[in-house]
Amino acid sequence: MEAGGRRRRVAALSAALLALSALSALALLLLSPPALRAGSALPPGLLEELRQRRRDLRRLAAGGAAAEGGLRCGDVRRAAGGAVLGSGFTKVVVRAALAGGGAVALKSVHGAGREVRQCEQRYGAPAGCRRLAAYKLLKEVTLLRRLRHPGIVQLHGQCYDSGGETEAGVTAVLELGAPLEMIQLLQTPWEERFKICLGLVELLFYLAHSPLGSIVLLDFQPRQFVMVDGNLKVTDMDDASTEELSCEEDNDCTLDFPTKSFPLRCSSAGKCEGINEKRNLFNAYRYFFTYLLPHSAPPALQPFLSDILNATGNLRYGINETLRAFEKVLHLYKSGLYLQKRPLLLKAEAYKCWPSYSHLGCLLSVHSPEEAAAICSSQPHCQSFIITQQRTWTGRPLASFQSSPTDLIPDTTAIVYIKRSASLGRRL
Ligand SMILES: Nc1ncnc2c1ncn2[C@@H]1O[C@H](COP(=O)(O)OP(=O)(O)O)[C@@H](O)[C@H]1O
Ligand SMILES: *[C@@H]1O[C@H](CO)[C@@H](O)[C@H](O)[C@H]1NC(C)=O
Ligand SMILES: *[C@@H]1O[C@H](CO)[C@@H](O)[C@H](O)[C@H]1NC(C)=O
Ligand SMILES: [Mg+2]
């Protein structure tokens, strides 16, 4: 209830922010590029880098809807302390409160980050280097504006620091997320880890067929993603590219990773066929699927998951087939079909009450009371269980397993199942 209310407030505010139409980053670049005015004082190497980034940005912005936004940074009150949520080579992200309530993430250039520092060492031009880094953030803002997907962090607007509406002071106002904690994720139930992998596959499907063409995330790592309400979202888009590698022959098209390389075909159009899609998919395999997908999965689903791991690990599947394979697993899981197929696989040695949905007890999602009964009877500690009213994201109810009948929580709506020596009885 509360979370929903907060979301609505943020949504309403972001609409208000976007409605505040002023000079946008795009309009600034196309109408009054300050780089040209201040440019003469900059070292030629830096000027060339600035030009390249501006070209890159214009190309991405071309054909997009006119950008709105351009609110004042004063509209977004920095929360007490402005807690830093994370930082990378180029950008720093802080938490902030909107004037009307609701929390957002503010992303701006990381003045002390590696990108700006290395540029300063090279060119000794702090202002120009800040602007060079700001182009990356502007590119990200442009991409976030043109791409809409549940797997991409939402852009609420953008604003400029008090120093005037210059590119270097640009700040993106983003949906607030929580940085990805891989170690923590490994301890969540399989169903939640599967959701993250499925979300990633849906994102990669969208990127492969995006309105801007096939998009590759060149810097693809867990730290470029955040979690919002249990959903995975990409936040770092400045290293995304819509270009597919050009080639003359197949030999020009090798997709290299530290542990593996894949020879690809050079198409008649002179592009390495599907290289962007394949790079994303293999990265998803090596950073996400191998860690999150297999362990403590329902045993009957394991052959399907092994096939997904094998087919993405050697790029036998493209993103379309991968998505289809994930949807099939989801269907089997939701419908409980995997139980009919091999009901006896839910054996004692396969079952441990970990990872549980609750720290306090043994809370697992089940398809039906029958599945819960099978789990309980296979577990020496289990004496009884309750099918609760709570449901997971797939709609499966959570069952609470108990070690002794005296632990039972009285609840008029719950059915309590009690183990009777070998067989299972049922009482109210
Ligand atoms: N919307 C967000 N909510 C919370 N944390 C975020 C958000 N966006 C980014 N972060 C955190 O900030 C870090 C830096 O952002 P990122 O865009 O990756 O910058 P860089 O381009 O410098 O790597 C990320 O690794 C992530 O931990
Ligand atoms: C995939 O399976 C094939 C045979 O079925 C095997 O030779 C290959 O090593 C497997 N590859 C991966 C990445 O698991
Ligand atoms: C994958 O699916 C998309 C969208 O449905 C479609 O346009 C495309 O042709 C498919 N590609 C392949 C290789 O099947
Ligand atoms: Mg990053």
TrEMBL record:
Cellular compartment(s): Golgi apparatus; Secreted
Keywords: ATP-binding, Developmental protein, Differentiation, Glycoprotein, Golgi apparatus, Kinase, Nucleotide-binding, Osteogenesis, Phosphoprotein, Protein transport, Secreted, Signal, Transferase, Transport, Tyrosine-protein kinase
Biological process, per Gene Ontology: cell differentiation; ossification; protein transport; skeletal system development
InterPro entries: FAM69_kinase_dom, Kinase-like_dom_sf, PKDCC, Prot_kinase_dom
Broadest EC class assigned to this enzyme: transferase
The enzyme's E.C. designation: 2.7.10.2
GO molecular function: ATP binding; non-membrane spanning protein tyrosine kinase activity
Predominant place of localization: Golgi
Family matches, as Gene3D superfamilies: Transferase(Phosphotransferase) domain 1
Segment forming the signal sequence: none
Location of the Protein kinase domain: 79-428
Catalysis: reaction(s): L-tyrosyl-[protein] + ATP = O-phospho-L-tyrosyl-[protein] + ADP + H(+)
GO cellular component: extracellular region; Golgi apparatus
Annotated protein name in UniProt: Extracellular tyrosine-protein kinase PKDCC
Annotated organism of origin: Pavo cristatus
